[in-house]
Design a protein that fits this description.
2 domains, alpha/beta, Quinone Oxidoreductase, Chain A, domain 1, 10 helices, six-stranded parallel sheet, Rossmann fold, seven-stranded mixed sheet, 27% helix
């Protein structure tokens, strides 16, 4: 075990009260709790970065049927992907003080975890924070469920989020000839084109023309591949623009998750199944658990692309545990570009 003085307390973000609608900063609290001494089989980690992901809204809303993660009740500590430094570990275990590791106990500055729940950072990635990139799902979807072929026109909904900022770049690297995205902000649309190689970005919201109308203008001959993380009107319009043999992969449902009138676990949409039939369109949801080899494949390719400069990992940084309580509401409000990462 390490002999240096170890922290006796940890600060963590808890759900103070389950909201009636979308969460606000007042629904969270930063609290301090005692840390017990590490015992054999457990690892003490000082967190350095953790990810804020929109799925937390569903866990807070309680509509978690069929999900692999538990609902969050009032008083529970939030959780999610994190990277950190080992401060203490069993002498006969695989970890040593100073090792960088990945785990799911984010939203706290220190975590005492079973060694089995901690994974060493992968040397394929040039920086530890890159382990928080949400690229495995879009990569898996665009290679398994809706494979991109050379020359394809690809539509990515929710293009300015953690998934979409990587998905457009992945589609291009896989051979797409044209990549179209969607977002609700002209500023984000400009960044997607200037920084991430999107050819065209559609603007969503009541102040803009209907999404289907914008899509027809941007892709008059239709689209070959759709990576959808939004659902709702955007998914319906994408299916309407699908070419013969188009492939559609659903990796998220933000239209339902971020709806104040819903609990975050439903995202209904009306689609024209006759069009799917006559055009031979495939539509499927992507689950990483169905494709166990994708994670390692993604890390290897992502690491190579990062080192060569072929891809960027865009993320917005929230500084400190005290600001973390505002991070999820800010993400839901669309105030950030790319992934949202809290730096401790």
């Amino acid at each position: 075990m390490a002999t240096a003085a170890l922290p006796r307390t940890a600060r963590e973000v808890r759900l103070a009260a389950r909201p009636d609608g979308l969460p606000e900063p007042r629904h969270f609290a930063v609290v301090r709790r005692p840390l017990t001494d590490p015992v054999p089989g457990r690892v003490l980690v000082r967190n350095e970065h953790f990810l804020v992901f929109p799925g937390l809204r569903t866990l807070i809303g309680g509509e978690t049927e069929g999900l692999p993660l538990p609902a969050l009740a009032s008083g529970d500590t939030l959780f999610g992907p994190a990277v950190g430094e080992v401060l203490a570990a069993p002498g006969d275990g695989p970890f040593r003080p100073g090792d960088r590791v990945v785990h799911m106990a984010g939203w706290r500055d220190h975590a005492l975890l079973p060694a089995a729940d901690v994974t060493p950072v992968d040397p394929a990635l040039p920086t530890p924070v890159a382990h928080l990139a949400q690229g495995s799902a879009p990569y898996g979807a665009l290679t398994r469920v809706a494979p991109v072929r050379t020359g394809d026109v690809v539509l990515v909904t929710g293009a300015a989020g953690a998934v979409g900022t990587l998905a457009g770049q992945i589609a291009r690297l896989l051979g797409a000839a044209r990549v179209i995205g969607s977002t609700g902000s002209p500023h984000k649309a400009d960044r997607l084109v200037r920084e991430l190689g999107y050819d065209h970005v559609l603007l969503c919201g009541p102040e803009y023309p209907p999404f289907a109308e914008q899509l027809r203008a941007a892709a008059p001959d239709g689209v070959d591949v759709v990576l959808d993380s939004v659902g709702g009107e955007q998914l319906a319009a994408a299916l309407g623009a699908a070419r013969q043999g188009a492939r559609v992969a659903v990796v998220g449902a933000l239209a339902g998750q971020l709806d104040a009138d819903r609990g975050g676990g439903t995202a209904p949409v009306e689609i024209d199944t006759f069009r799917l039939l006559v055009r031979g369109v495939s539509l499927g949801g992507y689950l990483g658990t169905d494709h166990p080899g994708v994670g390692a494949e993604w890390l290897e390719r992502f690491g190579g692309w990062l080192r060569s400069g072929a891809i960027r990992f865009p993320y917005s940084t929230v500084e400190g545990i005290d600001r973390a309580a505002r991070a999820l509401p800010e993400l839901i409000a669309g105030r950030h570009f790319g992934a949202v990462v809290v730096r401790l």
